């Protein structure tokens, strides 16, 4: 569900708990029929729109994994992991008040540092090294309705809305190589997120 961060990559994707929760919800399929629950008044209501990509590629012994997530409420988040014969590198940021997805084009610059194991840097890297992610995206297919109810920090979070698959043509320029990326996760989302006191039941009717 959504972008999955595995193994040692887990530490370098900077994302707030709220953003990760929203991303997971956006990628979840709609339930056929939400269970009937008690009507109550939400303590907060937000409209969240954005995009998410999880991509990877390999060229000439350089393997790259890139995650990009942008949410109108939770900001922009990015992460990258690069493996070469000489060593591994990582980078990430978020949340930031920046735009990575704009008018069909995606663009993100991510500073790199050596990945470390047991506190020891595996390989040197030039100061100021940056991975430059760029390309295009377009909506494709029919929007998919989503619905999710989760408990978080003493609240019931009810999310309803749509996500839309994206067709992408994205690559990353890193360590002197241009690496085409295949994006297994690529979607835009448009969500209504309501928070209720835990135990209130909320309102499961889709927006």
List keywords for this structure.
single chain, 207 residues, two-stranded antiparallel sheet
State the total count of DSSP E strands.
Answer: 13
Poorly predicted runs of 5 or more residues: 1-38
Class of secondary structure makeup: mainly beta
Q: What is the N-to-C succession of helices and strands? A: HEEEEEEEEEEEEE
Q: What percentage of residues falls in helices of 4 or more residues?
A: under 10%
Number of helices: 1
Q: Domains counted in the coordinates: how many?
A: 1
Spatial extent as radius of gyration: 19 Å
The largest pleated sheet is described as: 11 strands, antiparallel
Q: Judging from the principal axes of the Cα atoms, what is the shape?
A: elongated
- Strand residue percentage: over 45%
From the N-terminal CA to the C-terminal CA, the straight-line distance is: 22 Å
What do these coordinates show?
The strands form 2 sheets. Strands 1, 2, 3, 4, 5, 6, 7, 10, 11, 12 and 13 form an 11-stranded antiparallel sheet that branches. Residues 1-38 have low confidence and may be disordered. 37% of the residues are buried. The chain is elongated. The protein has one helix at 17-27; strands spanning 44-59, 62-71, 75-83, 88-96, 101-102, 105-111, 113-114, 116-117, 120-121, 130-139, 144-152, 155-174, 177-197. With 207 residues, it is mainly β. It is 5% helix and 57% strand. The chain contains 1 helix and 13 strands.
């Amino acid at each position: 569900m959504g972008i999955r961060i595995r193994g040692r990559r887990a530490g370098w994707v900077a994302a707030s708990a709220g953003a990760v929760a929203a991303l997971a919800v956006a990628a979840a399929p709609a339930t056929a029929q939400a269970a009937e629950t008690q009507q109550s008044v939400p303590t907060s209501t937000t409209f969240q729109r954005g995009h998410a990509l999880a991509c990877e590629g390999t060229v000439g012994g350089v393997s790259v994994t890139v995650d990009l997530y942008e949410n109108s409420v939770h900001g922009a988040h990015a992460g990258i992991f690069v493996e070469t014969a000489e060593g591994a590198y990582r980078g990430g940021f978020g949340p930031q008040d920046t735009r990575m997805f704009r008018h069909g084009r995606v663009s993100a610059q991510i500073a790199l540092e050596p990945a470390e194991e047991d506190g020891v840097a595996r390989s040197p890297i030039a100061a100021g090294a940056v991975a430059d992610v760029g390309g295009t995206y377009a909506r494709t297919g029919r929007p998919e309705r989503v619905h999710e109810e989760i408990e978080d920090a003493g609240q019931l979070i009810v999310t309803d809305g749509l996500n839309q698959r994206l067709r992408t043509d994205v690559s990353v320029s890193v360590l002197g190589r241009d690496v085409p990326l295949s994006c297994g996760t690529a979607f835009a989302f448009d969500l209504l997120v309501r928070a209720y006191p835990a135990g209130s039941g909320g309102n499961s009717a889709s927006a």
